[in-house]
Structures are given as C-alpha cells and as structure tokens.
Amino acid sequence: MKKILFSLLTITAIFVFLPMFAAFEAHVINVTARIENALSVNTEVLDFGTVFPQEHLDLPVRVALSDSFMAEDRVDDVEYFIRQKPKCAWTWSGGTEFDETHTATGHVIIDQSAPGGYRIDCGEAPQVDGLPTDATWGVLPSLCEYISKEDDQTPDNDGSLVSFHQPWTINGSVIDWNDTAGYLAKSANDTEDNWTIDLAVPCFGGYCAQDWESFVHGINPNVNPAEYTQPKENEHKIFGCDLWFEVGGISLPGGGVGCADKADVMLVLDRSGSIGPDMVTLKNAALAFVTALAPSADGVHLGQTSFSSNGSLDTHLTDDVATINTAINALISSGTTNLAEGITLATTELDNPGDGDDRADGESKDYMVIITDGAPNVPDEATAQAAGIVAANAAKADGIEIFVVGVGAGISPTTAAYLRDNIATDADHYYAATEFSDLSAVLDAIADCEDTDNDGNPPPPPPPPPPDPQTITIFSDQFGEASLDSTWIKSCPTGTSGCSASDVFLATTSPRSVGDQYLDIQDDAAITGTFSTVGLNNIQLTYYRRVDGLEPGEALVAEWHLGSVASDPWIELEAVGPSATVWDDQVWSLPASADNQAAIQVRFHTVANGDSDDGLIDDFRIVGQS
Length: 626
Fold this sequence. Notes:
This protein has 626 residues and is α+β, with helices and mostly antiparallel strands. Helices cover 17% and strands 33% of the residues. The protein has 3 domains: 23-249, no CATH class; 257-447, Rossmann fold; 471-625, Sandwich (Jelly Rolls), CATH 2.60.120.
C-alpha cells in the first residue's frame, strides 16, 4: 500500500510542477536554404508551437535535385550539408513575444574576450513600425542543441545528428561546425531525401523531472544531461534556430571559366562598408582565383572593377599576375553598394577591343565574375536594383557570361533571388557562399572545368590551398551595458580646460536604432583603449560615429599609436566636424607596424568647449587575421 501511495505522490508532484514550465514555446523560425540551384528545398517555417519539457516531436523536410539539375546531362550528383545557426529577432514582454516577419540569422564570430570565445552578431536591427516600447533586437535562446537531423536511409548514404549536441565549437581560431551530410545522385536513382527534424524539449533549472537524465541518455548517451537544462529565466521565452542547407560543391553545367582555352575575365568586386574585416578573406579568395586561372599571353586575361558608393576600373585586362594582384590587394571597404557601375565599367572593358586590352580575335570568350555581400542601394534599393538589371542585361546582350557569388549573412532570400534571376546569366551561374571563408571553394568551382582536354576524364584535382586566415575579434563593444567597459580609460588630454571624467558617458537619446545605447564624449574629453595584437596581422578598426552640436573649428578625432604610453605621438585616423551629424560606419586598416604588438592604443577625443558639444561612438570593434 505504501508503494502505491509513493507512486501516486510522485505523479502528483510532476503534475503540480508542470504548469511552472508548460508554456515553453519553441519555434524553428524561417528555416532557410542558402544553396546552389542543384537542390530544391521547402523553406517554409517549421513551427513546433507550444511544447512541454521532455516531449519528443518531429517535422519533415524534403530535399530534392532541382528540375534544372535533373535536365542537365553533364552532372550527376550533389553533396550537401545541413548547418545550424543562431536566430535573431525583435522580442518583447520579456522575450515571450516576437515579430515573426523581421528575423535574421546570427553570425558566429570568434571573440577572445567573450564567454566561450565567440559572440553572436545579429547585424543591424531592421526598422519596423509599431513595435512595443520594450522591444529589443538580438539573438533568441538557442533551439539548435535540441534538434536532431534523421535521414530517410533510402539509400543509407546520408549522415544524421541526434538531439543534445553542440551546433558549433571554437577550436583556437577556427569554428568547427557540427554539420550533417547529405548526398543525392541521379545515377543511383537517389533524387530526394526526406529528413525528419526532431525536437527533444529541454527542462528548466531545478524543475526537471526525475527521469530527465534517462530521457537525455536515451537519445544521446554520450553527453552530460546537466549541460542541456535551460536556466529558469528562459521559461516562457521564444526559442529559435536556423537550418541552412548548403551545397558542398558540384561541377558547373557546361564547365567553368577554366574550360576556355582563351578567356577575358573581369572581376567585379564589392568593397562596400558592410564587408568590413571580411575584406581580407575576400582578397585572399580572389588571389587564389587568379592563381587557378593561370593568366598567360595566349590564354586567360583578367581585369578588375570594384564598387561601393561609386564604381571604379581598377585594372585593365592583362596577363600580368602582379598587376592583377596589386589591384585586388588595394581594395578598401567603405561606403554603400553601387552594383550597376561595377557591371557597366566591366562591360565597357570587355567590349572595347580597340584599346589594346580586350582581344578582338573572336576566340576569347568574355566572362564577368561578381562578388557581393548585399543588395545594391545607391541612391536607394529600388532604383539601384533596377539599374543593376539594366546593366546586367546590357552585358548579356553583348555575349558576356555572368557568374554571381552572393556571400555572407547579408544575402537574404530576396537578395539571392534578385542576383540569381536578374544579374547572373541564369540560375546555374549563381553561387551562395554563406560565410566569407566559403569563397575560395566557390571560386574554385567557377575556375574549374570538367574535361579541359576532351579525353573523357576530369582534370586531376589541384593541391589543397592553404587555409584562409581567420578573422579574430580582439575586442568589441556595443556600449550596451549598464557601465563602461573597464578596457576604456577616460581622460582630459593635456592643454584642455573645463573637462572632467563625467564628460564621457553612455547615452540613449539619439540611438542608431530603437533601444540602442552609445558612447557620448563631450567638452574636450577623451577615451582610450589598450589592445594586444600579438600573433595577429592586418589589424582593422570599425565603428559608427556622428557628432551633435559642434561649431566650426570643433571636431571628433579618432587616432591610434604604438605602445601604451599616452605621451607618444598619436596618429590621426580622422577628424570630423559639424557636418557629420548622421550615423556613419567607418573601417580603418592600420599599417603593418600595428601587427604582432604587445600593445597598441586607440583614442576618441572631442575637441570642443562645452557640454552641448558631443562626439558619439557606437559598435566599436578591433580585429586581426591569424
């Protein structure tokens, strides 16, 4: 009798505690597919709704070879993978409600100063009218650890990943993604995979059922269940995760640029401010592309245009590798995105054989390879997109074959569709590189050829390239905390008067977006940070800035110097005066002397004479390459 009563009491206890965590609402929001058009993926939202701890639920996802891939005789199989990434959204009411229509994928960035060695960058908050006053933009609690990927085993040639796992880990300067592999092949009559996306629901804090450990170990016996309980403060919140289905690499229908014995190829490279520190990775991928094409007098010639707020012709078509590489290395990230000018300048170069650069022999096929990280927006997005289409159509009418690579988290599904359907020659000429580190593999595919000597065999694979340098965040500050980070030291530079430490403070009155906080520097005050660049090179600074209330002769100054002695000479990066009243992003590449230093200093200083004279700084970041 006592045994039965004990059992009944145990069940009662479970039901008593259940309402305390029954409202755990889990969403897989906007499960996205940044993929080559070899695949067709259903990208509708997977919504598990309101679920309960220790429930086990599943939803299906179908992945199939696209109609265009099926119709192409020269290709047979596709290797792809499923990658889990953080989810960002507007939330309010303590994270229990969210805006389903304006979300984004978070970007995992290695940051030595952050917990776990990384941080999540949600990007610029989208502007949304009518949000509640307590709405905040940021990353949702992660659902990725609790989602499994189970393959259909028909045939058994795909991977799988059980729930209760880490979606990524940081290994030194490398992000190790816990991807799930997939494979489709026409020759094996394996043209679609039906995946089961399974959610194993976590419990909260000290309110887990007695069988929580057995529940976890029944799914994944190799983990510690305590590591997968959620903190009590996440109860009732919206959770999220993005699943990205990405093609690992296929041969191009018709072959890549490398199939042409002679070719005139124009690189059209985005150098807008949104690329920022990833410009180093873009340059390295472009340099490797040049090496792969092996320019020669009678073979491939290469030239380059680039674009930000305006386009420029950086180098004429040439077979001189040093000239091409110099143009690539000279790129600096800044400004907005004027895609049309980059295309038009490249078309002019390819259509002008009389200038001695483009060949008029009738045998040299014309190509354009465009790399961009977002939609064109000069003077506005609608006008810029229309101009881009006009420019691309003019190039196509002249017989130019256009490859387009959309790279990075800024390529939304809408932007990808625009580039694929309107700018590239056709869907098979559009590539998605979800990370800048993927660029080298994508450009390798464009440079490759299935059968360059027509002997029925593909060329031998090239030796593997050296790994791309990894961008390392030395320090970042969004100035969103209750007090200023201790890295920063307030001061009044020598020769100033009326200045005090209270002239440097955190403010919210004129934010870049709703609810944002920033740094305000008044009345000749300054703020200085000291940073180590040991083991790193290609040091870059990025930040947003604007001024308010400055008079002629007054300025906000950004400067740096080597060492940690404030009396050493400062090197000015910029000094902006009264006209800089709009938030603007700045990217500065420091000289090689800043590489591998035990200490460098960065200082922001308002040269002014009153408390109504403000220099404003936000989203500061200093990075280097390993």
